[in-house]
Amino acid sequence: MNKQQHNEPNTDSLADDCRALRGGGERESVAVPSNTATNNSNNINLIKFLRFGVDSLYISYQGEIFESVDEKLSKLKLLARSDNQGQQAKAQYKIGDHLFEVKDKGTSMFAYILEDNAFRIQLSRPKKSVPMAYVKVSSEYLTYKTPADAEKSINNILTELGVLQSSANVSRIDLYVDFVSHQNMEAWTREAWVTRAGSISSYAINKQFTGWAIGMGGVIGARLYNKLFEITTSNKGYLIPLWEAAGRLVNEPVWRLEFEFKRDFLSQKDLIPLKDALANLNGLWSYATTEWLKLTTPNANDDTRARWPVHPMWQQLATLDWETNDSPLKSRFNNQRTPNHEAVMDRGLSAFTTWMACNAKDDPDTAFRQFCDALAIHISDKANKFNLHVDEMIMSKVAYKARLFNTLNTNPQEEYLSFNSDAYRRASDGE
């Protein structure tokens, strides 16, 4: 369980690691909140609030894609299935400042999948009984825009693809709070959790406690875990400057409490329309922290667990006022899904040092020139093997990766529209 995989790390080094995940030491500017209303001074030794909001959002729309879009996406999907990387690279769909990768496969309900760093959009073919679109908003995008503003961006994209016949409906929404606490999060037993859920799990790695997961797999689920450690393995270093803008100090541990609300639960509460769900975040949080789940202080003299006193830390967590949320947001966002710069350079360093060791080289300056010469020969031999010009082979591989990273528009003239129409029809008929 990735979100629970953490130990007791040195937060200084973790912060450095997270900045490296962003591709260097340059600090990204953020919108600083106008006040510190979320930093409740009560029980300050238990909790200091940093940020809270929506972490995951899955929404759907009724409607129908244009037939011209269906035809274009069918061709792009077929290109994505090609054995030729140059053909695969052309499987892109540009809308505004989004250069989506078109996936080679759909799902049982949705024929097409478009993805970049902001959105994963699943689309159905015309005249299907399922929603036109099912969209996952990335967690990072929700640190840049509010859920309502994110939905406006999605709506603008989808109107380029078809006719919408409904507003956004929620399939899942996750609410979270990031906070500083020096509490020992394993100081209580499972018995201290009073919940309507059927499962309570604690996690450990190398005999060290890592976190709690409660009710996962049900219509509501909860996690309490060390977020600072988790981001070092999930490429979410962008959270560090946001926490700092909210008041986190060096060496302070950051924990996250997160609730996952699925469609079945939202339907029971008449909160399927996104606008209704967003208008009732206080109610969702209150229900989750006071009725569905409570952390208590067990009383051995009282067999009625519902009467056990609520843990002071949990009392604070339950007090969030979602109508006054002024958590800082990122001022910039990149739709590209590029690996971080340091990781790319590390691969190059590994290749160079491996070559030096294999060839018993002990002079880096001389070896680097020889390595470049050897690499040029290797590339030339590989191009000849496939009867390609060196530049053609290199750019084919660049274009293939650019599609995955949402960087270069590898086919701006849409040449794919003229490719083998017979193959397209055969593939379409076989769907």
Description:
The protein has 431 residues and is α+β, with helices and mostly antiparallel strands. It folds into 3 domains: 2-56 and 172-324, no CATH class; 63-165, no CATH class; 341-405, no CATH class. 35% of the residues lie in helices and 21% in strands. It contains 14 helices and 15 strands. It has helices spanning 11-21, 67-80, 85-88, 147-158, 227-234, 239-245, 263-268, 274-279, 281-292, 312-317, 341-358, 364-385, 390-405, 421-429; strands spanning 48-61, 63-65, 92-95, 98-102, 112-115, 119-123, 133-137, 162-164, 169-180, 193-195, 200-205, 208-214, 220-226, 254-262, 293-295. The strands form 3 sheets. Strands 3-4-5-6-7-1-9-14-13-12-11 form an 11-stranded antiparallel β-sheet, with helices on both faces. It has a two-stranded antiparallel sheet with strand order 2-8. Strands 10-15 form a two-stranded antiparallel ribbon. A hairpin with a 5-residue loop joins strand 12 (208-214) and strand 13 (220-226). Helix 12 (364-385) packs across helix 13. The longest helix is centred in the C-terminal third of the chain and has 22 residues, at 364-385. The chain is globular. 34% of the residues are buried. Mean pLDDT is 85; it is low at 1-44 and 416-431.
